[in-house]
Amino acid sequence: VTSYLQDIAPDLCDRVELYDKRIPLFDKFNIEEEINNMLSKRVPLPNGGSLVIEQTEALVSIDVNGGHGMFGHGSSKEKAILDVNLAAAKQIARELRLRDIGGIIVVDFIDMADDSNKRLVYEEVKKAVERDRSMVKVSELSRHGLMEITRKRVRPSVTFMISEPCTCCQGTGRVEALETSFSKIEQEISRLLAMMEQKADPENPKSWPRFILRVDHHMCNYLTSGKRTRLAVLSSSLKAWILLKVARGFTRGAFEVIPYTDDKASENQHQVAISLLRSAEARANKSGKKEDLY
Question: How far does the signal peptide extend, from start to end residue (predicted)?
Fold first, then answer.
């Protein structure tokens, strides 16, 4: 380290100290935890509030949320809001430096009724960004509690450098609900059934078309959970045999429906399915109750 500093910053050589304790250096100063926090959208504040940071390539939005101390009336509530906003002002300046965020940053502070309190928050932000080596400009709060901060962009933010978009949500932060994916599966099988030249006899299970449904493990659990499984309901309503398979590498919401091949293995599996169906019908006849097809 000293040799490296001799070339780029000789005046810092006297600051180098040898760390010889048994606890790893990064653990001692929580470096790993700080790196993990840089990837988190939610940042807790000391007084119970939190920041929600949403980064895009165009701009960054920071939403200030109050904690349990926000309950109150009149001046006490205004004081609690001010305390949260002041704590947020310090933390926002720190997050801009840690994450190396540049460009336009829009901060949504908690609304305050007193204009003097808005001024205090503005002054706190200006004071907090003075430590920043990049050029930072801060605008005063609007009447809706919004503040615009511009920070000189030198390189992509740390978040974009050490992470990549999620393959499931494609960077949106949300994934498709299982119920929505289930509806798409039903639509796809219905579409394939409608395109078939030969139509099956609804009363003859042997004539029902057969499909292989490949899904991820989340959808597999969704389709097979409970006594009356969704897969059974789907097969019964569409009058089609559906062989469910879990596909490795499928992200949540991904699925594939293909016709069942007519080789010997598939024929044997189909006969097993027919036998199970007949057993179910026999049990239903003995009990006198109607049983849906599986």
Answer: none
Domains of the chain: 1-29 (no CATH), 38-162 (3.40.630), 178-273 (3.40.1260.20)
Sheet containing 59-65, strands listed edge to edge, beginning at the edge strand earlier in sequence = 42-44, 50-55, 59-65, 103-108, 146-151, 136-138
Q: How many residues does the chain have?
A: 294
Q: What is the 3-state secondary structure (H, E, C) of 116-174?
A: HHHHHHHHHHHHHHHHCCCCEEECCCCCCCEEEEEECCCCCCHHHHHCCCCCCCCCCCC
125 and 138 in contact (C-beta within 8 Å)? Answer: yes
Residue range 176-207, pLDDT digits in tens: 999 999 999 999 999 999 998 888 888 898 89
DSSP one-letter code for 203: T
Residue 243: predicted pLDDT = 94
Lowest mean pLDDT among 31-45, 62-76, 106-120, 135-149: 62-76
For residue 74, what are the CA distances in angstroms to 48, 79, 113? 20, 9, 10
CA angle 138, 95, 80 (to 5 degrees): 75
